[in-house]
């Protein structure tokens, strides 16, 4: 990379859906944008709709347009009470309707993919350890099941693009127990730890 050129990191959150009219993921990502990552990183944020067909088009477009050194998708989990670092994503089993009441026709993410599961090459256990040792209010855990909804779906699309530098982070709903600002600090620490692996 030429001297003085910034590395691009793309971070997405999701828009509202049933039970989450204010999506904690997008609130946390917007708070992260206020914090930034570092002087040599250009942070691009984007709100994804909870719509399979839109996500399927938008994410490859973000990869093509920004050519990020790291793509991080953030979603909300109603059952989480910690920041959850997802290690892998699945290609099939998408039978839950999106906000338009639609599921993928084949209930798969990438038709014709030879991988039922794709594992990120980013070691989430290392990221988890780094964040938990950072003396923040938030704590992190590692998961291997992002849930077969738009979160899992979006992650698989990015892993299919480039598993070397794709990540997914689940956050709890706002106030359960963290604020948007506290979640943003956790995202910042997590992404900084990920960057040490993709440089």
TrEMBL record:
SUPFAM superfamilies the UniProt entry points to: Pyrrolidone carboxyl peptidase (pyroglutamate aminopeptidase)
The keyword Transport belongs to this UniProt entry's keyword annotation: no
Domain of life: Eukaryota
Keyword field: Cytoplasm, Hydrolase, Protease, Thiol protease
CDD domains cross-referenced by the UniProt entry: Peptidase_C15
Signal sequence extent: none
Record field: transmembrane: none
Family recorded in the similarity comment: Belongs to the peptidase C15 family.
Xref: PANTHER family: PROTEASE FAMILY C15 PYROGLUTAMYL-PEPTIDASE I-RELATED (PTHR23402), PYROGLUTAMYL-PEPTIDASE I (PTHR23402:SF1)
Name recorded for this polypeptide: Pyroglutamyl-peptidase 1
Organism of provenance: Aplysia californica (California sea hare)
Gene: LOC101859595
